[in-house]
From TrEMBL:
GO terms for molecular function: carboxylic ester hydrolase activity. This is Putative lipase. It comes from the Bacteria. Coiled coil: none annotated. Residues 1-33 form the signal peptide. Belongs to the AB hydrolase superfamily. Residues 32-291 form the PET hydrolase/cutinase-like domain. InterPro entries: AB_hydrolase_fold, FrsA_esterase, PET_hydrolase/cutinase-like, TAT_signal. Keywords: Hydrolase, Signal.
């Protein structure tokens, strides 16, 4: 006669062990989620970042200059999802003599990866970088305090960007408000070449053939002056002119999304695109404060 007691005991122990392992696994998953409550969207791939849109559906609303103070109105782009929690936000300024429409592709591109974006119009198209920096901060204040999408935004996770004098303005904004989580100057122009006071993680993207804000006298000195402790990267586009942000650019999109995801969303899944950085014939130079901490 065969005894069933040992078999039952074994089954009980195996079941208990499986349950313990499952509980431990769930606990680890919960712990990981608790470690980063700001993670949004699926695990990234290079092909997904190179696509014209990310995983989130996007809506758009206009902001009249008559309804705001401190900047000239603009366009807001935001994820339509109501099940993903709140999102980080970014304000972006166009360059000297330009309007938001000149770089408007950035709005839906960034919003579709899980950010609320306001592309601003400046008070006048001749506004200098310091003024544009103040306007970017005014736009963030409007976005988080008065806008129709304010409940979708986590006001502790904000960033700035801009093109040309708008890029110089994003450096000014980051200097004035060190609580910002990221800054992304594009072909930045500024008479101030030294940004040793910056504490905001900053990605500078320059054009190798820029004749208006040559990288040797603008982007590179800006990058070199920012302390490594702030976290910084410099991407230089091969043979690109000053106006590269005014047309859809794959690597600008890839690196902007990656930088914002990493420092606004604290999403370390994007480290792989920042360190050691992209490799392409379209890129003439890349520098970064690797490794990320």
């Amino acid at each position: 006669m065969t005894s069933t007691a040992p078999s039952r005991a074994r089954r009980f122990l195996l079941t208990a062990a499986a349950a313990l392992a499952l509980t431990a696994g769930l606990g680890a998953t919960a712990a990981q989620a608790a470690d980063n409550p700001y993670e949004r969207g699926p695990a990234p791939t290079l092909s997904a970042l190179q696509a014209s849109r990310g995983p989130f559906a996007v809506s758009q609303t206009s902001v009249s200059r008559l309804a705001v103070t401190g900047f000239g109105g603009g366009e807001i782009y935001y994820p339509t999802s109501t099940s993903s929690g709140t999102f980080g936000a970014i304000a972006i300024s166009p360059g000297f003599t330009a309007y938001w429409s000149s770089i408007s592709w950035l709005g839906p591109r960034l919003a579709s990866h899980g950010f609320v974006v306001i592309g601003i119009e400046t008070n006048t198209t001749a506004d200098q970088p310091a003024s544009r920096g103040s306007q970017l901060l005014a736009a963030l204040d409007y976005l988080t305090q008065r806008s129709s999408v304010r409940t979708r935004i986590d006001a502790s996770r904000l960033a700035v960007a801009g093109h040309s004098m708008g890029g110089g303005g994003s450096l000014e904004a980051a200097s004035d408000r060190p609580s910002l989580q990221a800054a992304v100057p594009l072909a930045p122009w500024n008479t101030d070449k030294t940004w040793s006071e910056l504490r905001v993680p900053t990605l500078i993207i320059g054009g190798e053939s820029d004749a208006i804000a040559p990288v040797a006298s603008h982007s590179i000195p800006f990058y070199n002056s920012i302390p490594a402790s702030a976290e910084k990267s410099y991407l230089e586009l091969n043979n690109a002119s000053h106006f590269f942000p005014q047309t859809t650019d794959t690597w600008t999109g890839v690196q902007m999304v990656s930088w914002l995801k990493r420092f606004v969303d604290n999403d370390t899944r994007y480290d792989q695109f920042i360190c050691p950085g992209p490799s392409s014939l379209s890129i003439s130079d890349y520098r970064s404060t690797c490794p990320l901490s």
